[in-house]
């Protein structure tokens, strides 16, 4: 597994549209340059479309690899075959190995379904991967010089930009072979071309825009082709065009780029790399740059060795400074100095430790430097942790926690191959980090207090170290929340990625070449269980929505644009990937069901067809009649045969090779038998067809004959001209017209059936059929003349309709006029005038209708005379009706003259009468009108003021004039009408004043009621608002509303005015009742106002807050008195006294006093006196509490010093025990050392620790003295006396044990050192003795030889004694458990060596 923040699992990111077009053109040209080598050659015109079926993709890989790959081909390939071809190509690529890494090629986020969909970013990513592996890497790796260049440390950026996948989170995404391939190609350009000509090339982007870089590469291959001076003078487009033309024409390099592709702000680097890599094939001598790479490698080794020496020295300095003496502040300052040196070298070390081998392994020098660098890192971290843990008290705990928290924040997540495992790891890390960060708030509060005090329990803390811890704690505080959110987002993200991987794997297992029906049914069952049983689509929606919510929170917490863009891109790409996957997964079921359906169809049809073929083959020997009857249903078996072939061909395309081969053989056999049989019996297939054709022919002829007969009858029958008859006739003609096209179709069908029957029908019958068809054709042609009839009839219909309408109007007007002329005697003059007017109107209406009728009648007659198609229409009835109408008009003219004579007088009388009645009606209506009194008073005053006597006089004059011309009976009626109207006029004049007074009373009453309603509304509001607003505010509002000049006073004034108006009126029961009701309502209102005021004054809610505060203060006083009594009884525990004191001092009675002063104004007198007395008593109790507090403080403060000192004694005792244990472990470590010299070095550190412990002992002795002083001054509790005794006892014991331990350690180390020196001396003697016995001695005489041997024996005996002494000392010296037998083994080894020496001397 790798270690990174996030793996590149999201789909490839889409490049900008312009770069996408450039890549598409470049990659298409590159593919075509290779497909042209194929036989037969192929060509790609649209990359995204042509690659969908995978055929040309496999052809490209065959050309590049030289291998033959299986491919599904055909004109009707389905999507399943596309996906299969693309899957074959991807599997082939994944089986290849990288020339740089040696590991298989990894296709990240490239799926067969995406290629089949033609997704641009995925297609371009796949082609780029092929170019990278099969061209760029292959060509660069074949250059010996570039093997060093491509693996050396370079300033060139990694190939992160060349990845097709955009990393959704921060991570190290350096695909090694891509980085190496790009660096190798760039270094080749720099070393062989551009550096020699002074052209600077930093990348494969803007550096190539001017075209000079392309010319420098061509110059390196063929110097005679390029004039660099001319290149410098030309513009970009000209240089690019010239370079591409030279490369194509002179070097044979395909032109993959155009000048406009490169002459842009950000040229596409993949396209340029693809083009430039082609020049590697033509480079003449790649070995010239080999020495440059070797020189750089030597320089790099030198730098690594210098860095290793610096790191060794840094580690020694750290050890020396860490073990030396100094204050904590000095130690921390020294640590920071070393840390700064470490950080300054960090970038250089990281760049130098990049792998240099193809297998990502480090060189020997790099491995050594990396080991030392990690040792220094660990040493600094341990020292930092020790410094933080050594801080006094809780600050040391905070320091240790801070290191754990920082480790949790910077800990990287190990990315596993399986995303589900990664999600589980993230989940576990999330729980661990939450557990660590749970203590953040507590530690922060403690640290803030220490930071303010700059000390821990009086012990000062190094300011710089404290400030650094504050910054680190602030970083942890600000980063922890974001870190937790990030881990939660990662967990959900990896869950989703694992889900998508699972979906893809399942999809691959379903999109396969299928087997027999049972295996397909099993596959479908597996699909249903997985999709429906696991709720596949619902599970994705749930996971995605959770991820979306987590991503929103994560993006809001991390404001970096890169993170927002990465998360957004991942979500969009994951959505797109899921969209494609969902479509594919859903289509799997339909595909499987289609395969099963075809299996069912194929199996059933094959079985039935085989049985029928056997019966048909036997039937061939039977008589003709039997064969004709048997093969009557041959068309059915033809369809069955076609269905069998369709299902079989579908199964052959979708099933695996074995099943397809069996199906092909079975179909071949059945089709052969079918062909042999069908040739012999195909003529029987038409028997049923002929019968059906004959029946269809006869049905068509019958239908045509019926239509022709019916149409002729309707068109030629006589018709009387009227609106209804012509409309019915027109409908019949319209029906014939609509049936015409269908009958024409029937005729054509009958003709077609007759022609088809000619082959199977006798000649006489054929002649008869043709004759019948000719007759029907002639009749149909006559029927087709219906259009002129239809047109002429439609022209008559509007005229007849208008005539019918006016004839009806004529009769209606004539009937009304007849009723008027028959009733000549009228009851009143008004009726007489009205009848005259009506008669004139009806006469005019009759004349108008008759004019229109005559006009239309003449038009119709002319139209019928001129029409050749409507000769059968009869107009006699129409003419008769018109004549009758003309005769009827004459009857209405006789009475007209009589009516006109008296119309003027009658008109004048009627007008004056109507005017008078109108005035009287308005006046009477005003007397009884009901409504708003104010509006009525204003309206009636104005109306009665303008009432005019002239209206009555005009009426009386018109009446006198009319009386002279009327009969006697009508005159009496007229006089009666005049008397009645005159009496009404007088009655109105007498009632007007009383009506106006009554309205004034009603107006005042309405105003009184309105004021009273306003008061009642206020009272209702006060009662309604009492539970919510409280009585205090409502009392104030009540008094303000019902003040002296308020609505209540206004009501009294208006009631008085009503009484005055009532006195002017005559006895009116209605007015008296109105006044009494107003008086009663006002009295009730006064009582209600007073009762509401009393209710508000007496309501207890205004005292609620006061009583609550009063009760709280009373309870508070009681609790504080109890606390003070308890503190006085427990004077040895003063920890809570300051809190009790501060709360008592904060007590205040001012609010209650001021509140009482306010409430007295709005309450009853009894409530005010009662509350004042209670408050006075409470004030007295509060003063007593303050006096008790002062007395208790004196007692508590005397004990505080003792309690604090007790805590210091306990902490000192704990530190003393820990120091002693640490010293003992250090002593054990010294005695467990492998050598005496190492033990002496550790003893120096041990002595420093012992010295610090002695200083602590001295401080603790001083604490004992201070404790004795406190005991004399204030007295100590039993617990503190016990702690002092324990401390003193521990100090005494420690003095004795430390002294004994130190002496024993010094004696042991001195003995060990003496043992080592003696051991060395004996070892030196053994070495000399061996050299003496081993060499060939030269001597002048036997005497000298004997002397020399004797001297050696004497020395040997001395050394033997020395060895015996060493054996005794080895047994006496007591080292640690690990070295218990170390010295004894060494002594025995020396003894054995001495024995060998003595034996050798004896032999000599």
From TrEMBL:
<dbReference type="Pfam" id="PF25034">
    <property type="entry name" value="Spectrin_SYNE1"/>
</dbReference>
<dbReference type="InterPro" id="IPR047290">
    <property type="entry name" value="CH_SYNE1_rpt1"/>
</dbReference>
<dbReference type="InterPro" id="IPR036872">
    <property type="entry name" value="CH_dom_sf"/>
</dbReference>
<dbReference type="Pfam" id="PF00307">
    <property type="entry name" value="CH"/>
</dbReference>
<keyword id="KW-0677">Repeat</keyword>
<protein>
    <recommendedName>
        <fullName>Calponin-homology (CH) domain-containing protein</fullName>
    </recommendedName>
</protein>
<comment type="similarity">
    <text>Belongs to the nesprin family.</text>
</comment>
<keyword id="KW-0472">Membrane</keyword>
<dbReference type="InterPro" id="IPR057057">
    <property type="entry name" value="Spectrin_SYNE1"/>
</dbReference>
<dbReference type="GO" id="GO:0005640">
    <property type="term" value="C:nuclear outer membrane"/>
</dbReference>
<dbReference type="GO" id="GO:0030017">
    <property type="term" value="C:sarcomere"/>
</dbReference>
<dbReference type="InterPro" id="IPR001589">
    <property type="entry name" value="Actinin_actin-bd_CS"/>
</dbReference>
<dbReference type="GO" id="GO:0007097">
    <property type="term" value="P:nuclear migration"/>
</dbReference>
<dbReference type="InterPro" id="IPR047291">
    <property type="entry name" value="CH_SYNE1_rpt2"/>
</dbReference>
<dbReference type="GO" id="GO:0005856">
    <property type="term" value="C:cytoskeleton"/>
</dbReference>
<feature type="coiled-coil region">
    <location>
        <begin position="1068"/>
        <end position="1095"/>
    </location>
</feature>
<keyword id="KW-0812">Transmembrane</keyword>
<feature type="domain" description="Calponin-homology (CH)">
    <location>
        <begin position="21"/>
        <end position="135"/>
    </location>
</feature>
<dbReference type="GO" id="GO:0051015">
    <property type="term" value="F:actin filament binding"/>
</dbReference>
<keyword id="KW-0175">Coiled coil</keyword>
<feature type="domain" description="Calponin-homology (CH)">
    <location>
        <begin position="179"/>
        <end position="284"/>
    </location>
</feature>
<keyword id="KW-0009">Actin-binding</keyword>
<keyword id="KW-0539">Nucleus</keyword>
<keyword id="KW-0206">Cytoskeleton</keyword>
<dbReference type="InterPro" id="IPR052403">
    <property type="entry name" value="LINC-complex_assoc"/>
</dbReference>
<dbReference type="GO" id="GO:0034993">
    <property type="term" value="C:meiotic nuclear membrane microtubule tethering complex"/>
</dbReference>
<dbReference type="InterPro" id="IPR001715">
    <property type="entry name" value="CH_dom"/>
</dbReference>
<keyword id="KW-1133">Transmembrane helix</keyword>
<keyword id="KW-0963">Cytoplasm</keyword>
């Amino acid at each position: 597994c790798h270690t990174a923040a996030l793996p590149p699992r999201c789909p490839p990111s889409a490049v900008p549209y312009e770069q996408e077009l450039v890549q598409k053109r470049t990659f298409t040209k590159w593919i075509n340059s290779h497909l042209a080598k194929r036989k037969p050659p192929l060509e790609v015109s649209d990359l995204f479309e042509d690659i969908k079926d995978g055929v040309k993709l496999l052809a490209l890989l065959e050309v590049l690899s030289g291998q033959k790959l299986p491919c599904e081909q055909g004109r009707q390939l389905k999507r399943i075959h596309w996906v299969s071809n693309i899957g074959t190509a991807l599997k082939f690529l994944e089986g290849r190995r990288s020339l740089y890494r040696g590991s298989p090629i990894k296709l990240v986020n490239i799926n067969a379904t995406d290629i089949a969909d033609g997704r641009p970013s995925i297609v371009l990513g796949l082609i780029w991967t092929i170019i990278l592996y099969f061209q760029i890497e292959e060509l660069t790796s074949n250059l010996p010089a570039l093997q060093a260049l491509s693996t050396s440390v370079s300033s060139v950026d990694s190939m992160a930009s060349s990845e097709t996948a955009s990393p959704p989170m921060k991570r190290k995404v350096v695909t090694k072979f891509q980085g190496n391939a790009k660096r190798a190609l760039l270094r080749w350009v720099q070393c062989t071309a551009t550096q020699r000509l002074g052209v600077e090339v930093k990348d494969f982007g803007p550096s190539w825009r001017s075209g000079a870089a392309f010319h420098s590469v061509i110059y390196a291959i063929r110097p005679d082709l390029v004039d660099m001076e001319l290149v410098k003078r030309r513009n970009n487009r000209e240089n690019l065009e010239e370079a591409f033309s030279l490369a194509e024409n002179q070097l044979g390099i395909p032109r993959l780029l155009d000048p406009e592709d490169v002459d842009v702000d950000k040229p596409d680097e993949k396209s340029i790399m693809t083009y430039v890599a082609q020049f590697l094939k033509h480079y003449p001598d790649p070995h010239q740059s080999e020495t440059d790479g070797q020189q750089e490698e030597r320089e790099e080794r030198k730098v690594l060795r210098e860095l290793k020496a610096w790191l060794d020295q840094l580690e020694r300095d750290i050890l020396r400074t860490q073990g030396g003496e100094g204050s904590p502040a000095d130690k921390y300052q020294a640590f920071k100095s070393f840390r700064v040196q470490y950080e300054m070298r960090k970038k250089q070390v990281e760049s130098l430790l990049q792998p240099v081998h193809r297998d990502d392994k480090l060189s020997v020098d790099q491995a050594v430097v990396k080991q030392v660098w990690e040792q220094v890192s660990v040493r600094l971290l341990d020292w930092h942790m020790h410094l933080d843990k050594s801080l006094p008290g809780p600050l040391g705990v905070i320091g240790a926690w801070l290191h754990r928290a920082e480790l949790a924040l910077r800990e990287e997540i190990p990315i596993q191959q399986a995303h589900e495992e990664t999600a589980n790891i993230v989940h576990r890390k999330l729980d661990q980090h939450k557990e660590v960060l749970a203590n953040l708030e507590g530690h922060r509060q403690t640290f803030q207090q220490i930071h303010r005090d700059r000390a821990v329990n009086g012990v000062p803390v190094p300011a710089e170290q404290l400030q650094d811890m504050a910054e680190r704690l602030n970083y942890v505080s600000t980063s922890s929340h974001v870190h937790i959110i990030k881990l939660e987002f990662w967990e959900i993200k990896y869950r989703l990625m694992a889900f998508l991987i699972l979906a893809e794997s399942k999809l691959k297992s379903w999109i396969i070449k299928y087997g027999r029906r049972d295996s397909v049914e099993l596959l479908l069952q597996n699909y249903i269980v997985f999709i429906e049983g696991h709720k596949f689509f619902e599970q994705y929606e749930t996971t995605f929505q959770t991820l979306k919510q987590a991503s929103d929170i994560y993006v809001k917490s991390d404001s970096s644009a890169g993170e927002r863009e990465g998360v957004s891109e991942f979500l969009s790409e994951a959505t797109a990937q899921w969209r494609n996957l969902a479509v594919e997964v859903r289509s799997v079921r339909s595909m499987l069901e289609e395969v099963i359906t075809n299996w069912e169809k194929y199996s059933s049809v094959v079985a039935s067809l085989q049985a029928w073929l056997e019966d048909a083959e036997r039937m061939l020997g039977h008589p003709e009649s039997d064969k004709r009857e048997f093969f009557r249903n041959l068309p059915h078996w033809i369809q069955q045969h076609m269905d069998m072939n369709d299902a079989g061909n579908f199964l052959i395309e979708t099933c695996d090779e074995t099943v397809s081969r069996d199906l092909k053989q079975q179909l071949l056999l059945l089709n052969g038998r079918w062909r042999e049989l069908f040739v012999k019996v195909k003529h029987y297939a038409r028997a049923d067809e002929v019968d059906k054709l004959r029946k269809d022919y006869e049905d068509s002829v019958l239908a045509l004959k019926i239509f022709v007969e019916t149409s002729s009858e309707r068109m030629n029958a006589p018709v009387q001209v009227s609106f209804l008859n012509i409309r019915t006739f027109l409908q019949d003609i319209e029906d014939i017209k609509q049936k015409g096209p269908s009958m024409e179709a029937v005729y054509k069908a009958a003709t077609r059936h007759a022609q088809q029957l000619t082959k199977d029908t006798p000649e006489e019958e054929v002649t008869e059929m043709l004759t019948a068809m000719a007759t029907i054709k002639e009749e149909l042609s006559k029927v087709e003349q219906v259009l002129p009839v239809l047109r002429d009839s439609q022209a008559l219909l509007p005229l007849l309709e208008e005539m019918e309408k006016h004839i009806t109007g004529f009769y209606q007007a004539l009937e009304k006029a007849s009723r008027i002329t028959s009733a000549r005697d009228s009851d009143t003059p008004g009726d007489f005038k009205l009848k005259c007017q009506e008669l004139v109107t009806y006469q005019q209406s009759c004349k108008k209708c008759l004019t229109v009728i005559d006009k239309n009648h003449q038009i119709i007659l002319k139209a019928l005379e001129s029409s050749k198609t409507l000769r059968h229409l009869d107009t006699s009835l129409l003419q008769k009706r018109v004549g009758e109408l003309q005769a009827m008009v004459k009857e209405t003219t006789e009475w007209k003259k009589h009516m006109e004579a008296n119309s003027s007088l009658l008109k004048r009388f009627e007008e004056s009468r109507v005017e008078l009645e109108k005035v009287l009606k308005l006046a009477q209506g005003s007397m009884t009108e009901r409504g708003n009194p104010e509006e009525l008073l204003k309206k009636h005053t104005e109306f009665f003021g303008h009432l005019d006597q002239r209206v009555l006089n005009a009426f009386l004059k018109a009446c006198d004039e009319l009386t002279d011309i009327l009969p006697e009976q009508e005159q009496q009626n007229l006089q009666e009408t005049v008397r009645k109207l005159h009496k009404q006029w007088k009655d109105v004049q007498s009632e007007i004043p009383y009506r106006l007074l009554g309205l004034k009373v009603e107006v005042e009453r309405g105003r009184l009621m309105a004021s009273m309603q306003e008061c009642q509304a206020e009272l209702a509001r006060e009662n309604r608002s009492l539970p919510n607003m409280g009585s205090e505010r409502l009392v104030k509002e009540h008094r303000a509303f019902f003040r002296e000049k308020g609505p209540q006073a206004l009501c009294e004034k208006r009631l008085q005015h009503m009484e005055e108006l009532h006195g002017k009126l005559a006895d009116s029961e209605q007015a008296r009742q109105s006044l009494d009701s107003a008086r009663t309502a006002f009295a009730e209102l006064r009582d209600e106002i007073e009762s509401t005021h009393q209710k508000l004054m007496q309501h207890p809610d205004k005292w609620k807050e006061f009583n609550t505060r009063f009760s709280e203060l009373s309870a508070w006083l009681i609790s504080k008195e109890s606390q003070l009594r308890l503190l006085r009884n427990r004077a040895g525990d003063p920890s809570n006294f300051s809190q009790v004191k501060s709360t008592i001092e904060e007590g205040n009675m001012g609010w209650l006093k001021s509140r009482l002063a306010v409430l007295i104004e709005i309450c009853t007198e009894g409530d005010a006196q009662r509350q004042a007395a209670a408050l006075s008593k409470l004030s007295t109790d509060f003063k007593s509490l303050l006096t008790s507090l002062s007395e208790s403080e004196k007692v508590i403060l005397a004990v505080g010093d003792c309690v604090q000192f007790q805590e210091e004694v306990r902490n000192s005792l704990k530190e003393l025990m820990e120091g002693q244990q640490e010293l003992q472990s250090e002593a054990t470590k010294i005695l467990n050392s492998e050598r005496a010299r190492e033990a002496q070095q550790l003893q120096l550190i041990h002595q420093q620790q012992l010295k610090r412990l002695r200083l602590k002992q001295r401080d603790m002795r001083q604490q004992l003295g201070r404790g004795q002083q406190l005991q004399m001054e204030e007295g100590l509790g039993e617990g503190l006396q016990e702690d002092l005794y324990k401390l003193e006892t521990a100090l005494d014991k420690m003095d004795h044990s430390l002294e004994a331990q130190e002496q024993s350690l010094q004696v042991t180390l001195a003995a060990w050192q003496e043992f080592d020196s003696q051991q060395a001396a004996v070892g030196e003697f053994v070495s000399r003795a061996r050299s003496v016995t081993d060499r060939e001695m030269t001597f002048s005489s036997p005497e000298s030889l004997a002397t020399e041997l004797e001297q050696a024996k004497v020395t040997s005996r001395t050394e033997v004694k020395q060895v015996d002494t060493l054996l005794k000392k080895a047994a006496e010296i007591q080292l640690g458990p690990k070295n218990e037998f170390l010295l004894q083994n060494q002594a025995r080894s020396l003894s054995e060596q001495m024995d060998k020496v003595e034996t050798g001397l004896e032999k000599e």
